[in-house]
Amino acid sequence: MKIRISVSLACAAVAYAASALAAPPSGKTIAQQGNGKGAPGCISCHGDKGQGNAGAGYPYLAGQPKAYLVHQLKAFADQTRKSPVMQPFASALSAEEMDAVAEYFAALPLPKTGGKAGTADAVGKRLATQGKWSVGMPACFQCHGDRGQGVAPNFPAISGQSEDYLKKQLEHWRKGERSNDPIGLMQSVVGHLEESEIAAVSRYLATLSPAKAP
Amino acid sequence: MKIRISVSLACAAVAYAASALAAPPSGKTIAQQGNGKGAPGCISCHGDKGQGNAGAGYPYLAGQPKAYLVHQLKAFADQTRKSPVMQPFASALSAEEMDAVAEYFAALPLPKTGGKAGTADAVGKRLATQGKWSVGMPACFQCHGDRGQGVAPNFPAISGQSEDYLKKQLEHWRKGERSNDPIGLMQSVVGHLEESEIAAVSRYLATLSPAKAP
Amino acid sequence: MDIRFLFLFTLVVFATGNAARAEPAQPAGEAAQAVTTPIPVKAFQPPSEDTIPDDEFGKMVRLGKNIFTHTDKYAAKYVGNDQKCVNCHLDAGRLAHSAPLWAAWVRYPAYRKKNKMVNTMQERIQGCFRYSMNGTPPPADGETIKALMSYAYWLAEGAPTGVKLPGQGYPKLDKPKLEPDYERGAKIFAQNCALCHGADGEGVRQGDEQVFPPLWGEHAFNWGAGMHRINTAAAFIRANMPLGKGGSLSVQQAWDVAYFINSHERPQDPRFEGDLKATKEAFHNHQCRYGDKVGKTVLGQSSQ
Amino acid sequence: MDIRFLFLFTLVVFATGNAARAEPAQPAGEAAQAVTTPIPVKAFQPPSEDTIPDDEFGKMVRLGKNIFTHTDKYAAKYVGNDQKCVNCHLDAGRLAHSAPLWAAWVRYPAYRKKNKMVNTMQERIQGCFRYSMNGTPPPADGETIKALMSYAYWLAEGAPTGVKLPGQGYPKLDKPKLEPDYERGAKIFAQNCALCHGADGEGVRQGDEQVFPPLWGEHAFNWGAGMHRINTAAAFIRANMPLGKGGSLSVQQAWDVAYFINSHERPQDPRFEGDLKATKEAFHNHQCRYGDKVGKTVLGQSSQ
C-alpha cells in the first residue's frame, strides 16, 4: 500500500515535472491543484470560486487586484506578512507562478458575500465611511473603494470579507506581524484605533457585499 | 418832553388801532414793529432776518416750519412752554397774528449760521447722527432732517441754532419746564441723556449750518 | 475669542405669555404714556461704527450701510416705493428687537414657510426689495447684495453661527384681550403716529429725501411684505413705535393700530397673477386683511 | 449658547517660525516615517453628521454634503476635471488644517488679493469650480451654491462670525532650508504619492468614480487653482499627505514634492487671454512655475 502510493505520487510528480518543463502550470491549475512543488491548490482553503471560508477565517481572493495578490504572496514568502500557514506555500511558488495564480483570482468576480442588511454597527460604519479624523484616520472606503470593493492596483476589497480575518489583519498591523503595507499606511491608520473600534469596523465590513453598494 | 412822547405814542397807537380795525397787521409788520398791543417787533431780539442772536441765546426763527412756530407761540401763551420773556408777548398776539408772523418767518431762508467745520464733538455727533439706541434714543437727525434743517410741519431746524439755546431747551424738557412736545417725544428722548451728553449734542449742533449738509 | 455679550437695556418688555401684566388705562384723547420700565436683556453688541476698517472690505461695509440707511439713493433702481431698509430695522440694522442684521446674518440659510424653500441671506434680502420696498430684487451676484451682506456680516462680528440670539426679529406679542378694532386703531393712529406718518399714512418727504415712510397707499410696502401682517406690524410697533418711545403703547393698542394701518390699500402682492382669491389662498393664510372688504373697498382689488 | 470648542488632537505641528524644530534625517529610498508627535490644538468642532435635521433645511444640507463629497455626480455640469471639493478639504470639509468649511464660512465676505475685490462665500465657492475643478461656476442663485452654502453654514454652527479660527486654511509652512528641488521632489513623489496618485500623477479612476485625484495633466486642477502655488501645495501636503499620515513628510520634503508636482503641465489658467507672459504678470506674482521652462516645455504654453 505504502509503496504503491509512493510510486503513484512519484509518477505524478514526474509527469508534472515533465509538463512543467514544457510550460509552467496555469493560474487555474495552481489554484485548483497546486504547483506540485509544495503549494497545494488554493481553493482547498479559499473556496472553489475563491470566495473564501468565513467560518474558518480564510479570506476571499476572487476579484482582488492582481498586484495586491502578488504583493501578498511575496510578503508571505519574505515574512513581511507573517503566516505560518501561507509562508511555506508562498515560498514554494515561483515569481511566475505567483503572477499566474494572482491573475486567475483577480479575474474572478467579487463574491456575493456579506450583504446582511440591518446589522450595521454605528461605530464600525462611521469608521468605514467617515474615518476618525480627530486622530487623522481616513475612512476605510477612502482608499478601498466607496463600498470597500477594492481599488486596483494596491488596495484590496474589504467588504464582505471574513470578520475574523479582518480583525486579525488589523491586529497584525498593530503588532507589526504584518508590515508589508505601502508607506506603512495601514500600520499608521491602525495605530489610531482602539481595540473596540477594530472589532466594530471588522464586524461592519463583514456585513457588506463588495459586489454592490451598501 | 415826557408829554410830547406820550402824545406821539398815543397818536401812533390810535393810528395803529385805526389801521388794525381796517386790516390786521401783516406778519412782516408784527415781526418788525410788533402788533401794538404789547407784542414788540420780534426782530429786536431774533435778528433783522430772523437769524437769532447766538450770543444772547435767542434762537433763529427764519425758515422754521410755520406750524411749529404757531405751536410755540401758543405754548408760550398757555405756559406749556415756560418763558417769562415770551409769555406776555405771545399772550398779546391773536391767533390770526400768530399765524401771520409765523408764516412770515417760515418763508425766510434758513440762516447761514453755524458751519464751523472741524469743531465736531464725537459724542455730540454720534447723538445727532446715530442716537443712543442702547437706551432707545433715536438720532436727532432722524426726525429733525438729515442735517438738522427741520422737517415740516412739526420738527424745527436745530442745526446752527445757538448752543446756549439748545442746551436750555433740552434741560427744560428734562425739568418739565417745556412740555409742549407732541406725544411727549422730546421729554422721552431727553430722559435718556446725561448732562454731559446734552452739552455735547448742543455744542455739536451749534457748529452745523442748517442751510447745507454737514 | 471676540464674542461680546453685554447687558444692554432695551425699552421693551416682551414677556410673552405674561397675561397678568397690567395694561394701564389710557386717558381718552391723550397720547399714550410709557407703560413699561426698561428691563435688562442680554443682547449681542455689534461693533462700533468707528471700527469699520479702512480698507477695501471696509469700503464695501460702508457702501452696505449707505444702501441700508439711504436705500432710495444708493440702490434706487431696485426700490419701487418710499421705503428704506432702515425703516423696519432701526438704528441702521443694529437695534435689538427691531430685526437686527447681526441676528439675521447668523440664521441663514434657513427654510422659510413664506416661499417654501431654503433661503440664503441673499434671497432673504432680495425678498425685502421685492416686498417691503415694492421693487426689483437686486441680482444675487451684484454689488448691492454684496454690500448689504458685507454690512450684515460685519455687524455680526463675534456672533455665534446658527444661534437664535436674544433680540432677533421682533419680540412676539401676547394676543390682545379684545379683537383688534379699526376705530380704536384710528384714534391711536391719530394720537401717536400721524405726527410723523401723516394723517393719511402718507409719510413725509422733504425734497428728494424720505424722512418718515408712508404706511399705506401707493408708496408704501406692498401686500407681500411682512409688515402687512397684523401680528408682525403689532410686534414691531409695540417694541419700537413711536420712534424714541418704544414700549409706550399697550399690547392692545399695538394690535389695534396695526390692524388699522393694515386695513388700507397698498401696492399689489407681486405674486398676484390676476385672481385675488387665488392669491389670498396661496399666500395669505396668516393674520392679514388682504381680500377683506373695508368700507366699499376690497383690499388688494384696486392695488397698483 | 452653543459654542463648542473642544481640545482635539491633530497630527500637525504647525509651529511656524520655529526654525529650531529638528528635521530628522530620512533614510534614502525609504518612505518617510512620522516625524511629529500629535500636539493638542484648540479646534472648533463641527456638529456630528447624525444631527443634520430631518427637514427641508436638512435636505439642503445633505445635498450640499453630497455635492461636496461627490462633486462629479451631484454637480457634474460645473466640473471640468477629475476633482472634487473633498480632495482639498478632507473629511467632508470638517478637518482642521485642511481648509475646513466651518472656518471659511465665518470669514466671508472678505477681500481677496486674487481677484482684488470683496468676495462673498458664493463667489469663493464659484472660484473653486472655476479653478480647482477647472469648470464653470454654478450660478450664484442656483441650487448647487445654495446647497454648498447650507452645508458650510451648518458645519459652522456655534462658530463666531468674523473670527479667524484655529485650524482654518492650511497651516503656514516654514521656509525650506534648501531651495525646493525637482529631482528630490520626484523621489519623494515616487515613494509617498505614486501609490495613490499614480506614477505620472494621473490619479485613479474606478468605473465612473474618481478615487484618487490626478495631480497634473488635463484632468487635474488648472493653472489658476490655489493648489498650483508651491507654498499652498506644500502647506497642504505637509499637514495632510500621505492621506492618513499627515505630518510625516518633513518641511523640506513637502516643499520639494510640491515643487515637483507643480512643475508639470495642467489645464490653462481660465484668465489666460492668449498671452502667456501677460497672464503670468497679471496673475502669477507668487510662488508658482507658470511660464517657467521645464525640460522642453514652457509650463502653461501647451495647456488645454
Termini distance of chain A?
Answer: 55 Å
Could you tell me the CATH topology label of the largest domain in chain A.
Cytochrome Bc1 Complex, Chain D, domain 2
Cα-based radius of gyration of chain A, to the nearest Å: 19 Å
CATH superfamily of the largest domain in chain A: Cytochrome c-like domain
Number of strands of chain C: 8
Query: What series of H and E elements makes up the topology of chain C?
Result: EEHHHHHEEHHHHEEHHHEE
CATH architecture of the largest domain in chain A: Orthogonal Bundle
Please estimate the helix content of chain A. Answer: 40-55%
Any guess at the CATH architecture of the largest domain in chain C?
Orthogonal Bundle
The secondary structure category of chain A is mainly alpha
The third-level CATH topology of the largest domain in chain C is Cytochrome Bc1 Complex, Chain D, domain 2
Low-confidence stretches of chain C: 1-40
The CATH class label of the largest domain in chain A is Mainly Alpha
Q: Can you tell me the CATH superfamily of the largest domain in chain C?
A: Cytochrome c-like domain
Tally of contiguous helical segments of chain A: 11
Number of strands of chain A: 0
Structural classification of chain C: alpha+beta
CATH class designation of the largest domain in chain C: Mainly Alpha
Whole-number total of structural domains of chain C? 2
